[in-house]
Queue: 4 jobs
Job 1
Amino acid sequence: MIKLENVGFRYEDMVMNFDLQVAVGELVGIIGPSGAGKSTLLSLIAGFDLPVSGRISIAGADMEGVAPDQRPVSMIFQDHNSFAHLDVWTNVALGISADLKLDPPQRKRVDEALARVGLSDFKARKSTELSGGERQRIAIARALVRDKPVLLLDEPFTALGPALRRDMLDLVREIQKERKLTVLMVTHQPEDAKYAASRIAFVQIGRIAHVLPTKQFFAASAPADIGDYLK
């Protein structure tokens, strides 16, 4: 589903180069030291950053020249996932159309997405009236109405406590299985990747150093650089 082949990018003094393949319906955790290039990896897939070399393909289609809003991708960030001056329903509806001119079937999609993430009773509230976890549910609902096959998560649950993070991970996994989504999740919490991901990509100094099944990644026999990171 997602394939990065010799994808090069330069950020300040760091030269990055990524190779990665992710299968349809897989949830892959992306972990590694701060500044290693994890968020840049997602931004390249989403089209917010453009590679200087290599090829990114999704479902066999080359993404070169494809604008972010035309890619089969939704992305959820740690912050700025909602507009404070808008109510919850409108925040989600923006995932379908920026002009908010929705027909009845589209309005139904918004209502169904809100119900799926447990926000039906909050749709008339401003996002500032909600908790951090509830605001992240807005972002998940917006991704649902966009109905894209790839979901990128850039540390969206970092600010949440352990119990609430686990609730959000459960919600993401349930939706992933229901819709057969392909999910890449950047996290600084190794336990979150261990809980949710089938494989883990370890990013170091602008490269993917290892991609391992989750059980193998956390095993005592894992490569030494992984063990050093997890200490």
Job 2
Amino acid sequence: MAPIVSIRNLTKSYASGFQALKGVDLDIEEGEILALLGPNGAGKTTMISIICGIVTPSGGSVTVAGSDILTDYRKTRAIIGLVPQELTLDAFETVWNTVAFSRGLHGCPPNPALIERILRDLSLYDKKDTMLRHLSGGMRRRVLIAKALSYEPKVLFLDEPTAGVDVSLRKDMWQLVERLRASGVTIILTTHYIEEAEEIADRIGVINHGQILLVEDKKALMAKLGRKQMTVELAEPLTAVPDALSSYGVTLAEGGGQLVYEFDASGERTGISSLLSALSQAGLRVRDISTEQSSLEDIFVELVGEGR
């Protein structure tokens, strides 16, 4: 099956000479949730803005459901929904009218039942007659999502949708995203909250300095790049790593009371058994052993650091 969004050699340069995108290639599969991670200025918003027809690319091509975003603008824009970072709303309009107007603006016939369901899903229905200026920032962000959903897009871009909202609202939005995916909507999410990507994404993409560093299935990424660390708590502290343990690459934690050993959990041999034997032969008494795996945040920081 062809990807629902296909990006080839996409570039964007500004008059100042700044290159926001440098030959981006990316395929997004229908029905998946792709989380796009990257620091500020990495090119996330520029890429989304190009796909949504807000910014003109300098070069390359983008197709959505097989149609080119430049030559078939009306066709592609009709199936793309965008929830932008900025809270740009008419402060003196009601929630219901704002969402209903967005549906009409995209050429869709009135559907009060759909609008009601969307508002209920976003816990906005009791605010349907409230002017937007009376809503909190988190509620206004929900209205942005409702606007995007009102015309039933096949592809939905969420650009930092939970920025500045509380944790409970963030989890409500995660549940909504799952329901949308279940209904067949393809979702591309940019976020600074790495736990958000870890929680709901199928694949993770990392972008920095206008280039895609990696796009990988989340579980495969964690298995490939996520390393495990074993911490051995000693009964008596050491001043240095014994020579008998030097071949294992262990390090001595501050204070000398712990030895730290990193290993590849997916490898055929972790080296743990032989290390424990070496500890015993070296006459070291062990008080406790614990292990932990690299988080997605650790992997992200490592990738972005390498891309500098």
Job 3
Amino acid sequence: MTPKLGANDRVTLYLSLVPYLLQHSPVSVTEAAARFHVSVADMRDLVRKLSNLGIPGTEGYYLPNDLFEINFDLFEDDDVIDLLNAVGIEATPRFSGTEAATLVAGLQFISGVVDAEDRPSVTALIQKIGLGASASPANILVSTPEPPIDITALRHALSAHNRVHFEYRNARGENETRTVSPLRLDLIGDTWYLRAWCHLRDAARTFRLDRIEGLTETNVAISPEHQALELSETLFDVRDTDLAVVVRLAENALPLIAEYHPVIESAASEGAVLATIRFAHLTNVARCVARYPGIITVVEPPEAIRAVANYASDALNGYAKP
């Protein structure tokens, strides 16, 4: 079973498909599908939609030569792709120095995330961007935070589509044994996360790498169903939890807690609002408040207020003189 194509996959495929067709068309749909590791049905869909893509003219609308053109007689009758007109291929965009520096910085960051064998390709792309810019890009150096554990086995499991096994310490400090189907590695800020299907919880879960110990790759393959999962852009989905916490904060401070997806309930006083945030457990409530001292005040429920008070008391006791 071929994994379902997402929007990002389609964009990436189009960027590769057009140069491929310029070099190889006419080519059979079956051969093109095998080349890009997609189903024949998906390749036909990509080709049909390609004819609706292009670059609008100076008047803001499309003329016949502004769109990619496919020989649809050959395509429909013989299942062969023949690209007759390619749009914008002759125009060579040139990045400004600032644009090139931004792209180079992003690629430098990515080079720390990709596998070692892929890093030379990233380096070559950085060099091409510098040569193609209208001005020399600023000398920017961006480093990627090192993973807190050796992720060699995890990278191999991701590429081989195998399950992994590890010990995990959750936010409550409890240790659990987990077997998961790894789907993606994410680096948010300086924290590494593993997105995976957890076979203990029978649901998609996100794991912090700094809480994982003893990770090993198994010889059990990830099911096609789990490989095809579309992950949400939200790392932690706590919409189904019962721990709803009401907080008070200044309205202009709402962007600071946007990642917690607050739901505004009402205005508390001049310039302040009441908002509800859902948490997985009380420990995270205290950590959220500690992260924004003096900005967030927990209003209810009582157990959340106590959790914050206990967290602050424990922290204060840590500074007590012997």
Job 4
Amino acid sequence: MYTLAVVGATGAVGRQIIEVLEERQFPVQAIRLLASERSVGEFVEFKDESIPVQLLDQDSFAGVDIAFFCATDLISEKFCPVAAAAGAICIDTSTAWRMDNAVPLVVASVNGEAASGYRTKRIIASPSSSSLQLSLALKALSDFSALERVVVSTYQPVSENGQQGVDELRNQCGELLNGRPVKNKLYPHQVGFNCLPHVGDFESSGYTDAETGLVREVQKVLAVENLRVTATAVRVPVFYGLCQSVNVETKETISVAKARELFDGMADVELVDNVNDVEYPMPIDVSGQDSIYVGRIRTDESCDKALNMWVAADNLRQGSATNVVQIAELLGSKYL
């Protein structure tokens, strides 16, 4: 039985972590819900109990075994070392520690053994939902043949920006449907009934940090530093559910039939690929699910060693909360 802390407990990912802990019956002795001053006094349900939200401070982690961080980079940078010094193992969902060479970047079903590297800083990083989703899909193929090149376009929902993103899309859709002009607060342009080829901040290369981050994170998770990956990230007017169009070139030819067989045998991957019955993964179908869904698998007719596929998953649940709880399960079964 473990004493847990959830930093950012009232946010979208924090609430999902609490839900997944209960659903997967993680052995919880006590749970400490931590947040900023504006959330103190709120209650969150866990196992038929109303747990009060406490203020995050320097003394929050005494006696904590595992601390889940689902807050900003600044919060993680400041408080992960505090929690680690108090004896906790931190599992962090922010970008703060992902590319730190002393911190393992872990997707439980892909490189779970890397979690053992937590001992250096007592921190484990979880990748972005885009990187996690893509890594799972690529792992199934890379177990059969080495990867040569990956081209991915991601279609990212507004919930990746938390409640602010959800509220902005909801408000804009309401205004537009009633013939009224909209105001942009979070995004640089209207997101309602629109697509923005802009996720993150632009860099001098013309890519955004979300795109370059995806490339580096996938290389680190798959432990292939020279893997050629290029990405385009698009914000779409969808509340929940992240989709990706993926082109994968491999060293050996992988037939469509073989690819389907590989995906069928991969943990946390579901195959939905029957165009005759118009079946393929969609955001509305993956919400609340713990797997990634793969479909539209087809040979790239311009390259005989490449496949095209479409991948979808719940960005808050499978893309974040489920993975960090799975990492905690690995810690409990192998390292604690």
